[in-house]
Design goal:
about 10% strand; mainly alpha; single chain; 3 strands; Arc Repressor Mutant, subunit A; 7 helices; 2 domains
Length: about 120
């Protein structure tokens, strides 16, 4: 889902850095304006696409779809499709996705402090 072509030098440098540096690896996985926000909503349990969209009114449906796919590819969430009409799809965090909870809380606390000094 990245804007960087897999054949570019920038992509190769990014991959090499991620292999050497845990912080860079993690940043690549949770990058994007919406990834952590989506995960924070899913901390409370499963949600359907429409429920996520209501909680994130400023995200486009396309961007939400792309972010959900990326989070699924990175094993942070599970997409479950139920054989119903109309189709029912739910998103929920994986166990490794739930481990982001304390990190998201710390980032929120840090953000509040940073806003105060701006």
């Amino acid at each position: 889902m990245s804007n960087i072509k897999e054949t570019s030098t920038n992509f190769a440098n990014k991959q090499a850095l991620a292999e050497e540096c845990g912080e860079a690896y993690a940043s690549n996985i949770i990058s994007g304006q919406w990834a952590l926000v989506i995960c924070s909503w899913l901390m409370n349990g499963k949600l359907r696409f429409g429920e996520l969209k209501k909680r994130l009114p400023n995200i486009t449906e396309r961007m939400l779809t792309l972010q959900l796919r990326k989070l699924e590819e990175n094993k942070l969430l599970i997409r479950t499709v139920y054989a119903e009409v109309p189709p029912k799809v739910e998103y929920e965090l994986t166990s490794i996705g739930y481990e982001l909870g304390p990190i998201i809380q710390h980032l929120d606390q840090w953000a509040q402090k940073h806003k105060e000094i701006k």
